[in-house]
Amino acid sequence: MLGFMSTLTALVLAVFVGYGGAWYFGVVEGNFSLLLFLATVVTGLYWLAEKFYFWPQRRRAAASLEAQALQRRAELATQGIHQVDNNMGDSHARLLMQPWWLDWTAGLFPVIVVVFLLRSFLFEPFKIPSGSMIPTLLVGDLILVNKFHYGVRLPVIQTKILDNNSPQRGDVMVFRYPPKPSLDYIKRVVGLPGDEVAYLNKKLTVNGKPLPKVALADFFDEEALRYAKQFQESSAGKSYRLLNDLDRPAFIAGADDFPYRQNCRYSSEGVVCKVPEGQYFMMGDNRDNSLDSRYWGFVPEKNIVGKAFFVWMNFGSLKRIGKID
Fold first, then answer.
1. From residue 84, how far is each of 36, 72, 191, 257 by CA, in Å?
2. I want to staple 185 with a disulfide (CB 3.0 to 4.6 A). Which of 42, 150, 177, 316 is the partner?
């Protein structure tokens, strides 16, 4: 039995390691939520087996050994032998010791289940991979996302089981990329269901009202080693910075054929979209260097992951730590 469990566990761990390696090298498309869920289930089964079967079995074996040792001492005592070599302590400890395959499964279950619950229902860490949200978020920023702000969802299947706040204009939101839901994207909420969003000649208008936009000092992009025009925009009581590249045309080139595309009108000046019910219009703060709703369409409510609210680390600049506007 123990030999079988050792072999089985080695195979299970090899599958996890193999999947992780294939994901890392791009052979398969990984799903960390699913991987963490499976790890929780597997280690949980081992933890239950340890608690209710293997640990009681080892305790019985240790108790049996102790009883045999006591009986032997009693028999020797009847023969007048009272000095007996006693190495039972080592044997007793070995019998109670958890084998490696339980150390690497049941022993890790408490840690894995805590990570799973925190990541699924409370907070999830993300790393910013691109410059689409500059200057609000820089490449390499490690951020925290509030998973319950917009409602509680079941992990993996993403079914909402409890409502909370609705997304608001100006929120920085993480969502599953509509053309490829296995990818997580981060953008700013610009349009809510029913809004008419117009981005014409690099000016944003919502429901016919231009969003206030004030010029700031030019922003130096350390990645591109160039300056960009920087502005402060205000939406629904929130103020945030954005960039514009005046050398780029306002025309939206290469827009996909996305769901509800008929709600959008493209021209040489930009785009005007009517946001459908249950959908959101998202844009990056780096307005001329962001692949967003102007190109691939609206974000369904079911794709929402959470609200980005804090930069907890950037190894290139500790000054980045702080609240996300």
1. 52, 9, 84, 86
2. 177
Query: What pLDDT was estimated at residue 82?
Result: 63
Tell me which DSSP letter residue 131 carries.
S
In this structure, which long-range contacts are made by residues 24-31, counting pairs with CB atoms below 8 Å and at least 24 apart in sequence?
Answer: 29/182, 30/182, 31/156, 31/182
**Any domain includes 114:** no
The CATH number of the domain where 311 resides is what?
A: 2.10.109.10
For every residue of 260-305, DSSP letters joined together read: TGGGEEEETTEEEEEPPTTEEEEE-SBTTS--SHHHH-PEEGGGEE
Q: What is the pTM of this model?
A: 0.84
Q: Which amino acid is at 61?
A: A
Digit-coded pLDDT (tens) for 61-71: 888 877 777 77
Sheet containing 238-244: give its strands across.
Answer: 213-221, 226-235, 238-244
Is 308 in contact with 172 (CB distance < 8 Å)? yes
| Domain shared by 243 and 185, yes or no | yes
Output DSSP code: residue 51: I
- Distance (Å, rounded) from C-alpha 69 to C-alpha 86? 9
d(CA 167, CA 191): 10
Mark the ranges of the chain whose per-residue pLDDT is less than 50.
none
215/150 same-domain check: yes
Half-sphere exposure of 168 (CA within 13 A, CB side): 13
Assess contact for 13 and 104: CB atoms under 8 A: yes
Place of tokens 């996305």: 258
Active site residues: 132, 187
First to last CA, the chain: 57
Do 130 and 267 touch, CB atoms closer than 8 A? no
Residues 41, 168, single domain; the answer is: no
